[in-house]
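Standup notes
- HV: blocked on the assembly model, inputs below
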Amino acid sequence: MRIIINSSSMVPIYEQIRDQVKAMIRSGELKENDILPSVRTLSKELKISALTVKKAYDSLEAEGFTATVHGKGTYVTAVNKELLLEEQKKELEADLEMAVQKGRRYGISDEDIRSLFDLILEG
Amino acid sequence: MRIIINSSSMVPIYEQIRDQVKAMIRSGELKENDILPSVRTLSKELKISALTVKKAYDSLEAEGFTATVHGKGTYVTAVNKELLLEEQKKELEADLEMAVQKGRRYGISDEDIRSLFDLILEG
Amino acid sequence: MRIIINSSSMVPIYEQIRDQVKAMIRSGELKENDILPSVRTLSKELKISALTVKKAYDSLEAEGFTATVHGKGTYVTAVNKELLLEEQKKELEADLEMAVQKGRRYGISDEDIRSLFDLILEG
Amino acid sequence: MRIIINSSSMVPIYEQIRDQVKAMIRSGELKENDILPSVRTLSKELKISALTVKKAYDSLEAEGFTATVHGKGTYVTAVNKELLLEEQKKELEADLEMAVQKGRRYGISDEDIRSLFDLILEG
DNA sequence: GTGGTCTAGACCACT
DNA sequence: GTGGTCTAGACCACG
């Protein structure tokens, strides 16, 4: 399982892990009943604290994406992928909207906002 | 001076104040040598901690938009509006970048991200 | 706020805190918009790690009983007390039922089970 | 020997095995000098780890219900059924006590706890 | 002052 | 081996 951590990002590590696992579930890279890497294994692989991985896994479990069996591991549960995608898109939309509104408050033209966006997406 | 605080927003209060002052400077609503309301006055008006207003003013001063004269108040300094615009664009760029990265972490395709962006900009 | 920790109990400390806060909310001892003791304050008072208190507070927030404002504190949100009571009773009922079924599997008579229960409740 | 495992239960598997063997001993279904199925046989039958069966058997031996003869198997020892009953009652008492304490943590009145208990016992 | 995140390591229970 | 809990302390952001 490939998780990429950006430790200089403002996004907490456990959220980065959680988001990437959610993406893998949605993409089908992780299927129902698949087992996630153990907390210790992933923590060593990513060179981060086991507690941080645990927090990500707890978060996934709280949202219903995984189930944990004591002494065995953490497993992917059945998920409605369509619903998940919609949720994730809404979250992204909210973030983009906030950014656009800020740009407009700054008096930046829509063309300029689009130019910036294009640079990021294509850069 | 009209500052509007949204305390339920995820944006820190001091950033909301700072951004709105910057926007007023660029729009011309605040001109060189204009005086900002005192920390105490504004904190009472907005019903927030004086420390928070102070932090916003400190931030403006650190960025060179204002100068504080001890015992007198905080004044707007001469500003290169071009430079300010560039800075604001960079800030917007950072916000957009974070949103795009999140979308990609979620496994949303660049086309879909663009579609959402278009909807927001044109909607 | 009086929280009592039984560190020799099998029940995790953070669950003990969470349950007692929930009980206080239901009893009215904690009302909407009341502020909980800060994570550090409570951790010192109970002589436990701040992380443990934090975990209890996170759990309360995830269940919707509290809302946290960064830099300010953790506040009690509006709760439907009737609904909360029903949930808690169902949880208790499940625990009691499991115990009774175990006793019956052991071939202990209902009279004996009731005697034990009476001893506990009155002891 | 019929052992039924509920893997979705909160009760550890080895405890489920141990309890059911103890119940069989007390009921007379298993008598002195009867031989238990081998660890490997039972683990295959129940599709669980041999280590888990071993742990259940170790636990039974530690409590004096069985004796293991190297290379031959695990045998039921003579048991004082009165003593066993007492022990089982203590276990039940502990479970009931935990449930009652939880109800009290939730602020549920003793009368309400008793009502729930009555419903379960008579229902 | 507050909460938010993270570390490095411990001990326990379950498989 | 696995997860579950807890510690003691660090650094950061916000008010």
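- HV (later): unblocked. The helical segments of chain A are 13-27, 39-46, 50-62, 81-105, 110-122. The first helix of chain A runs from residue 13 to 27.
- Next: hand off to the docking folks.
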